[in-house]
Amino acid sequence: MNDTQRAGATSPFKIRIEEKTHIGADGTRLTAIRDLSLDLKPESMTVLMGPSGCGKTTLLRVVAGLDGDFIGEIDMPPHSRLGFMFQEPRLLPWRTVRQNIELVAAPGFSGEDLDNLAEAVGVAEMLPRYPQELSLGLARRAALARAFSTEPDLLLLDEPFVSLDERTADRLRRLLLDVWSARPTTAVMVTHNAREALLLADQLVLLAPRPTHVVAVETIDIPRAERDTKIIEALHADLSRRFPANFAEL
Amino acid sequence: MSEAALRPDIRRQAAWYARGPWVSILSVAGFLLFWFVAAEIAQSRLLPGPVAVVQYVINESLHGDLVFQLGITLWRVVASFVVAMIIGSALGLLMGQLPAVNRALDPWLIVLLNLPALVIIILAYVWFGLNEAAAIGAVALNKIPNVIVTLREGARALDPGLDEMARAYRLTPWSKFRNVTLPQLQPYFAAASRSGLSLIWKIVLVVELLGRPNGVGFELHLNFQLFNVTAILGYTLTFVAVMLAIEYLLVQPLERYTTRWRNKPV
């Protein structure tokens, strides 16, 4: 799965948003993002952290091209393939897990690839089942498999592990790392869980409250395998001291 | 009431449902018995018993043209149904998705909903002549506003989360329609077709009575003039049987198939 390098995969992704404003049903204007500029390093994991309601999800939606109503530009290679893991699994309840994955899979993605991927994320036995028969944890695994089946140039993860118990969430984080390391791709994850961010990030991007912009970009170059509890706590203490506003409420 | 006190009730209710088909059969048998007794007491040409009516149906099917008349009517039902569902669904989806279209068409929808079927039928015959197209068009036009109202609700209830998913994964418009939109509309289609079939076949009879030289409606009209109640009951009974068969052999199995993903136990 990790032997092909496509042209798009190494090109950088540039995000420049001058302004993104929501207009409410009653006509009120709410500026979610102002003067945000961010370069994503290819094949690295960028984690966005910010206070809740700061516009993280809005930012992901703009990057994914789901919301074109903003001033600025998103510079990404043409014909980029996208994988998106939402806060909820968002599987189609009337399609089996296998059909859900097949529906979005990359053109060259064979049935065998699908079986291998399902095996890797632990949903092999769930492939013929409908999503409603799955627990939230299993549905998240299926959604993870779906996101990777597109063989994405850009993988977007919007708080993919919220409302899971800590053990399940931790297993899924390691699973994500395993699958992602097998085929590294440019990834952006949104979270408000500081320890999760410190475990997964190559680049940690701290965002300001609404209207949001980048406060700081921290590069964490300790290899992920070596990030045990002690190191994560040390990183956490250091960042809390330097950016109290971003870590206060966590 | 405590849970323990409720439980025998629930069990009795479950047993009642398990005997479902027998209850239905018993209920129909009870009606036939009532009819039979009433006819025996009345002893009138105007209230024939079930035996006489069934005999008439068998006779007319073998030697008369009951099957032909039934076929003609059924064809009109199907044609009007298809036309009404296609046009009604398209308009309903448009109105549900685009507020501007909804505002423009809503007054017409309300007019059409409240226009008596008879008025539409008479005008169709007057303006377009006593022909098949006018008949089917008039029936469809009576059903279209119903379909629109139902499908408009369906279009409004579409899940924006799944829509985002489809767009993020760059599904083609056709794939999105088939895999994301259509399954969400299925219950609304089912509701529209259910109420549709029963409404349409009643209106088809009126259309036939007023301006067609054949069909069940025409036969009913003819036998009304002859005061032949046996024939009237015979035709009615046969058509009801056909509609029941469509419901149980076509509509319900199809619905079970399309909703097989719902609430399956783990």
Explain what this protein looks like in three dimensions.
The complex is a heterodimer of chains A (250) and B (266). Chain A has 250 residues and is of the alpha/beta class. Chain A has a domain at 1-80 and 154-163 and 184-250: P-loop containing nucleotide triphosphate hydrolases (Rossmann fold, 3-Layer(aba) Sandwich). Chain A has nine helices and nine strands. The longest helix of chain A has 17 residues, at 166-182. The termini of chain A are far apart. With 266 residues, chain B is mostly helical. Chain B has one domain (52-258): MetI-like fold (Orthogonal Bundle). In chain B, α6 (117-128) packs across α7 (132-156). The chains are: A alpha/beta (250), B mainly alpha (266). At the A-B interface, loops of A face α8 and α9 of B.
Keywords for this entry:
heterodimer, A: 250 residues, alpha/beta, Rossmann fold, 3-stranded antiparallel β-sheet, 9 strands, 35% helix, B: 266 residues, mainly alpha, MetI-like fold, 11 helices
Multimeric organization: heterodimer
What's the Cα radius of gyration of chain B?
Answer: 23 Å
Estimate the helix proportion of chain A, in percent. Answer: 25-40%
Shape descriptor of chain B = globular
What structural category characterises the helix and strand content of chain A? alpha/beta
**Named CATH architecture of chain B:** Orthogonal Bundle
